[in-house]
Amino acid sequence: MNPFLALAFAEADAAASRGEVPVGAVVVRNQVVLAQAGNRVEELADPTAHAEILALRAAAAAVGEPRLVGCDLWVTLEPCPMCAAAISLARIRRLHFSAYDPKGGGVDHGPRVFDHPTCNHRPEVVGGLEEQMGGQLLKAFFRDKR
Amino acid sequence: MNPFLALAFAEADAAASRGEVPVGAVVVRNQVVLAQAGNRVEELADPTAHAEILALRAAAAAVGEPRLVGCDLWVTLEPCPMCAAAISLARIRRLHFSAYDPKGGGVDHGPRVFDHPTCNHRPEVVGGLEEQMGGQLLKAFFRDKR
């Protein structure tokens, strides 16, 4: 498995162990990890604290500006519409994600955030990486919740 | 003018004076202001630091949970797709905004984030309040920038 995706999966596992929906994200530039994060919505009492948002914010803080030119994002799940739009605003170059999310995704499902003429920046998108693993992680989490 | 919208406009003016795109947002519950914020993308080097996101996060921190049940949001501009999706995730009851934003809006334009079956929570939406004022604020800002 790609090492950055593996790191994102480790963040997702850590999120699950905190009782959060297991999603992890990693921002990479020039093969260097700028930021990595897992979902912390419940812990932080923050509706926007998805893994992607936390990773984008941390990476932007690290480089000192709001546009992450030349950066790539690795995520364990298809980003939701909020995260997809944030990815566009942050000028992420390439988005890689594992499982597709027909219920909550906003890239290839629902509002398909990048597929509108008003979307100012559309990253390259590579979806479905290690898809089984990404899907099982979520399924196991929600099965244990019931 | 509604006093909460007036407060949002004051936040937008303050954002403009900081050199930020002038947008302001206010979260209200039971006629009490829980949080107010203006855009701080450049200042914070945070691509997600739109007025709505900052106000939602502050309100959620104030109530100590990620879902803002029974809360309303007042914004000076039609929210972008990121903010619209965050508003849905935060369970905002009613969204009021001033100017429509055909280029960047995500509620009545572009991906129309609330208008998909996968959108789990659709707030009531009231758009176009004091629309001229909302539109002029943005126009003046971008005119001065050129």
Question: How would you describe this protein?
Answer:
Two copies of one chain form a homodimer. With 146 residues, the first copy, chain A, is of the alpha/beta class. Chain A contains five helices and five strands; from the N terminus they run αββααβαββα. Chain A has a five-stranded mixed β-sheet with strand order 2-1-3-4-5. The longest helix of chain A has 15 residues, at 3-17. The first copy, chain A, starts with a helix and ends with a helix. The relative contact order of chain A is 0.16. The A-B interface holds A 41-42, 44-49, 53, 56-57, 60-61, 63-68, 80-82, 84-86, 89-91, 102-106, 109-113, 115-116, 118-119 and B 41-42, 44-49, 53, 56-57, 60-61, 63-68, 80-82, 84-86, 89-91, 102-106, 109-113, 115-116, 118-119.
What keywords describe this structure?
5-stranded mixed sheet, 146 residues, homodimer, alpha/beta, globular, 5 helices
Instruction: Give the strand order of the largest sheet of chain A, numbering strands 1, 2, ... along the chain.
Output: 2-1-3-4-5
**What kind of oligomer do you see?**
homodimer
| Topology order of chain A in helix (H) and strand (E) letters | HEEHHEHEEH
Count of β-strands of chain A = 5
Determine the N-to-C terminus distance of chain A.
Answer: 30 Å
State the helix count of chain A: 5
Q: What's the overall geometry of chain A?
A: globular
Biggest protein-protein interface? Answer: A-B, 42 and 42 residues
Mean pLDDT rating of chain A:
96
* Rg on CA atoms of chain A, Å: 14 Å
Strand content of chain A: 15-25%
Q: Portion of residues in helices of chain A?
A: 25-40%
